[in-house]
Design brief:
By secondary structure, the chain is mainly beta. It contains three helices and 13 strands; from the N terminus they run ββββαβββββββββαα.
Amino acid sequence: MEVIESPIKGVSLIKPKVFGDNRGLFVETWQQKRYEEMGLKMPFVQDNHSRSTYGVLRGLHFQKEHSQGKLVSVSYGSVYDVAVDIRKNSPTFGQWYGIELSADNQWQLWIEPGLAHGFVVTSEIAHFHYKCTDYYYPEFEASIYYADKDLAIEWPINDVILSEKDKNAMSFADFCKTL
């Protein structure tokens, strides 16, 4: 397993060992001891799985209280995954990091609590998995608009499909007013 730190502290790209042959592949997607040995201590309490079609964009989500750390991966298809630093006193506040996660590369992204997260599906269908460090509390959930000009995220797809919640997400400037 290889762990690569992104330019944003608390966001790490994880490349697990993949064992493949003509029958398919095997990958260990989580093993507490091994991840802790690599410096990643993650007290997971909830697993989520979403299935989405091409162009679906989910995000940029976060919880105002009970912030969730997330270990995310894709078991089918591909997505462009993005983490945004929304920690007020962070030296990388307002910066983002994006990477393609896919069933082919089997990479994972660790996003520690205190960051916003989103992804867009770049394949016909994608199965996306989240291991979370806290429970989902809908009363604390919030969203920042994915195409906010101040964040200037370089999404690989322009014509995206959004939920009503994500269509009506706040701007980054409005988010900053809440800090």
